[in-house]
Design brief:
Length: 334
């Protein structure tokens, strides 16, 4: 996702959290801000949730009941509860008034409370034997207080649910932003080292970026093909093809097509500790086998098994493997 969009969403969600915590602006305005964040992120659940919160929950025109697709959003917004009807049967309920409607109802109830005050009674009378029987609106006021409390409780549940949704989204975005920064920093470092190693690699790096950001599965396969070619270019520069060697009872081929074997051999000859080199070597071995399996499948025109997520993961992992290998170049020169 575009970093500018992520940055805007992080900033806006930070602002929303502050708005809620400090009660800075009307909650109706906060809901519209939440809707914008979700729209920018293409968060389908959030878009539906905050659209319903802003403009009302849909009802079935045939029977007047809450629409089926709205129940999940009612639960997510803290509006859902289970109760028993007068016959003792358990029923599901959803409080679906918008926040604006709830606030307006509370304002009306407060105005009614003012009107329901008991009238002032004067004790001055010309008839000292007069019996006073004042009219009291106490029961009406009690009912209003209960209604206000019930609506306020609904509002607080909605605020809590929305706060929780945005807080989780904000935390995830910040984590992804940190990971993205680490990956970007590693990518820039590796790209610079690769260009120093062989300036012809630049075009292959561009091809990887163009293909991995495509929506076409065939392009994802092409991105991995470019990864494979870059690994070969690096192997050719750092450990050119040569005769096989024997380790124990096993012969290790180091020919033109034995790219991973040559890279592992280069790593094993590094000055780093045996543990460090073994970790890189083992990762290379596993990664190389998987990359070759994908390459062989896609070479036969089989693209359906390669997901976009998997393709991105192997591009990222290629960069980390290359970073480890090129880092050993500095160690060897030191």
């Amino acid at each position: 996702m575009n970093k500018k969009i992520i940055d805007e969403c992080v900033s806006l969600s930070d602002e929303i959290i502050k708005n809620i915590e400090l009660n800075e602006i009307p909650f109706e305005s906060i809901i519209l801000k939440c809707l914008r964040v979700c729209r920018l992120l293409n968060d389908e659940v959030g878009i539906k949730l905050f659209s319903y919160e802003a403009y009302g929950y849909p009802y079935n025109e045939e029977n007047g009941n809450l629409a089926t697709e709205a129940w999940a959003m009612v639960k997510l917004a803290g509006r859902y509860y289970v109760d028993k009807d007068k016959y003792g049967k358990v029923k599901k309920y959803g409080k679906t008034q918008t926040v604006a409607e709830l606030n307006a109802s509370i304002d009306i109830l407060k105005a009614r409370m003012e009107s329901a005050k008991d009238p002032n009674i004067s004790l001055a009378s010309s008839n000292p034997t007069q019996f006073l029987n004042p009219v009291s609106n106490r029961s009406e006021r009690l009912g209003i207080v209960q209604d206000i409390a019930a609506m306020t409780k609904i509002l607080e549940k909605i605020k809590g649910a929305i706060y929780d949704y945005i807080l989780k989204l904000n935390t995830r975005l910040k984590f992804e932003n940190n990971i993205s920064s680490i990956l970007e920093e590693n990518e820039l470092d590796v790209n610079e080292r690769l260009c120093d190693l062989d300036s012809n690699i630049v075009n292959k790096i561009k091809a990887i970026n163009d293909n991995i950001n495509s929506e076409n599965p065939e392009d994802w396969s092409n991105a991995l093909t470019s990864c494979r070619r870059i690994l070969k270019d690096v192997a050719d520069k750092l450990y050119p093809p040569r005769d096989p060697i024997t380790k124990g009872n096993k012969q290790i081929k180091l020919g033109e097509d034995n790219v991973i074997n040559r890279l592992i051999a280069f790593v094993e000859e590094g000055k780093e500790s045996k543990t460090y080199n073994k970790i890189i070597g083992d990762n290379l071995d596993y990664f190389g086998n998987r990359l070759d399996a994908i390459y062989n499948a896609t070479s036969k025109g089989v693209h359906a098994d390669l997901t976009h997520f998997e393709a991105k993961r192997y591009v990222v992992y290629t960069y980390f493997i290359l970073g480890d290998i090129l880092n050993l170049c500095d160690k060897k020169d030191a």
